């Protein structure tokens, strides 16, 4: 996990937690000081977050937190589930190549290793997010459907739509740990369906897999509401 990826995950986490108000400017120097990094990885992370739809650049090129609603996030996650379900079905029907099997198995083994310790420890969390992105990307690439790949890339530009954007945020909650373990069990089941050529099952598992992201969204919003009741001065980043 390099510094740029680490900063990206930290900034994405802060936005979801409501640390920045909608429309608030994200100053590179202040973020660098807060995260203990130089401005270069912060700038790269902001560019990535703009592509994910979490921030937007104004007419002067400064980055602002984008306004969006919980419904927009939920809809984007739902669309990703159906698109990835189609990709999984195509892979299962086409057959899993030896190289794809090895690559997916490597992802599963990496996920098992990271989750065997404390999955919410920062290094493990960041490593799992990178593995999760690779697992999803391998299946999409193996689908061979360029139109489908473009559709997912377009959907990923919406707030919190990418595969790892709605993983449980770092905390000490046992519930977050349980959700991560459950999500990785789904990875194993999906791989099994792909390897067996079970297209319908693979598609259903891929769609069901995004329910973890939907649940994490609901949990995050619940926690935000609780924080707002305790500290009313804190504003939610998601629009009401």
TrEMBL record:
It holds the Pfam family FCD. It comes from the Bacteria. GO terms for molecular function: DNA binding; DNA-binding transcription factor activity. The keyword DNA-binding applies. This is GntR family transcriptional regulator. Residues 1-68 form the HTH gntR-type domain. SUPFAM superfamilies: GntR ligand-binding domain-like (SSF48008), Winged helix' DNA-binding domain (SSF46785). Keywords: DNA-binding, Transcription, Transcription regulation. The keyword Transcription applies. InterPro entries: GntR_C, TF_FadR/GntR_C, Tscrpt_reg_HTH_GntR, WH-like_DNA-bd_sf, WH_DNA-bd_sf.
């Amino acid at each position: 996990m390099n510094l740029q990826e680490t900063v990206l995950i930290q900034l994405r986490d802060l936005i979801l937690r409501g640390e920045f108000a909608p429309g608030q400017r994200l100053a590179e120097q202040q973020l660098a000081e807060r995260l203990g990094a130089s401005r270069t990885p912060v700038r790269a992370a902001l560019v990535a977050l703009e592509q994910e739809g979490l921030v937007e650049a104004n007419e002067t090129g400064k980055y602002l937190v984008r306004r969006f609603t919980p419904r927009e996030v939920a809809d984007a996650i739902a669309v990703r589930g159906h698109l990835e379900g189609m990709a999984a079905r195509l892979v299962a029907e086409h057959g899993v190549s030896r190289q794809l099997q090895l690559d997916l198995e490597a992802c599963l083994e990496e996920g098992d290793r990271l989750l065997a310790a404390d999955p919410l420890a920062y290094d493990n969390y960041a490593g799992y997010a990178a593995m999760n992105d690779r697992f999803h990307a391998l299946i999409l690439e193996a689908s061979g459907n360029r139109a489908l790949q473009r559709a997912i890339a377009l959907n990923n530009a919406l707030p919190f739509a990418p595969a790892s954007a709605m993983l449980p945020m770092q905390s000490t909650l046992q519930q977050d740990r349980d959700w991560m373990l459950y999500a990785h069990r789904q990875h194993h089941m999906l791989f099994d369906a792909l390897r067996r050529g079970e297209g319908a099952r693979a598609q259903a598992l891929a769609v069901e897999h995004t329910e973890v992201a939907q649940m994490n969204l609901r949990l995050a919003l619940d926690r935000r509401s609780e924080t707002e009741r305790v500290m009313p001065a804190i504003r939610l980043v998601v629009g009401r």
